[in-house]
Amino acid sequence: MLVAQIGARRRYAVPRGLAEAGCLQTVVTDACNAVRPWNYLDWIFPRGFRPRPLRAVLDRNIEGVAIDRIQGCVPFFLATRVGALRARPGESKVSFWARQNEAFCRTVVRLDWGNADTVYAFNGAALEIFQRARERGLRCVLDQTAAPWRYNTQLLSREQARWPGWEECPADMDPGGHMVAREEAEWELADQIVCGSPFAVEAIRSVGGPVEKCTVVPYPVPDIAPLVERKRTLRDRRLRVLFVGTLQLRKGIQYVWDTVRRLGNGDLECRAVGPSDLTPNAERSVRSLLDWRGQVGRNDVWTHYAWADVFFLPTLSEGSANVCWEAAASRTHVVTTCAAGLVGWDATIVPLKSEAMAEQLLRLAREPWQGSVIAPERRSVAEYGADLVRSMS
What we know:
Strand content: 5-15%
Strand order of the largest sheet: 3-2-1-4-5-6-7
Distance between the termini: 13 Å
Number of strands: 13
Order of helices and strands: EHEHHEHHEHEHHEHEEHEHEHEHEEHH
Structural class: alpha/beta
CATH topology of the largest domain: Rossmann fold
Helix content: 25-40%
Mean pLDDT: 89
CATH architecture of the largest domain: 3-Layer(aba) Sandwich
């Protein structure tokens, strides 16, 4: 299999899992620390002296995959940072992503695919790759990382009306139809669509998508989480509540804010970690009630999970929320919605209503707290890869 992916999505679980299963021909990505020039920079710059943009790239490590099976796309990566593939003035994020994804796909098409008989790519960034694969008679597998673009556009249109002034142009809305068209053309070309949860399948069904092509393969429980034996018990202090993710309507930061507003700060100490897509006014509202730490590195987020008693993600739409798996792996109690797409272990599932969320957090804050919860049984990347291969057999 040839895997093509932009960024370190799912910590490269797909190529790592397929390599463990003996099925990986090549993984093509934009940048990681195993290919030039990043491998040299990884050696030259000590970790404590790396500027944030460089650290974000050098933290991308495709463990367990031989270097000769990794292809980087340095010209493409540089074009997205300093060249022609940067966002243009006035260009929407969705239009920018569609243009960038098309350029990445065309880069992959020009590469030597070796003996690959199957290509595995991700929704919105697979179209030209699948078109070329079809010409060569290869099998096409699409990873549906989230609910469809059409579904999210309809959902967020309603949410914008409900929360005016919070997010002007939600990144997951596609009013122009650029990503909708790409994704639905990819569905047509795909032999199989791999989803992380039944929620994603039902979202595809709701917009008339080909659910007969869909299979559900739950994500692995992260195997890089630091070992946490037990957390401190809740005695004479407030309940520590953590949100990790982009501050945006789709992830439900507005419901975090509204829930904390209803409870006040007498029972909760709430922290948010992640970049923001909100308006300045909405950011000020968030800062007034939450300790917002901004974006942190992939390896630094574990200190925040270790701090928290409860991980709170009132998300509206996901494929399967990686941050919930990360929180659970660090023995943090998870409170989320059914849209998080969790499969295979228990979390506290709440409706998307601030009153119900506040009631649940208040109950946790005032009941005798026993410290750490039992972490879900870790499902390794190797097991994930084996499940992927079985789903394609």
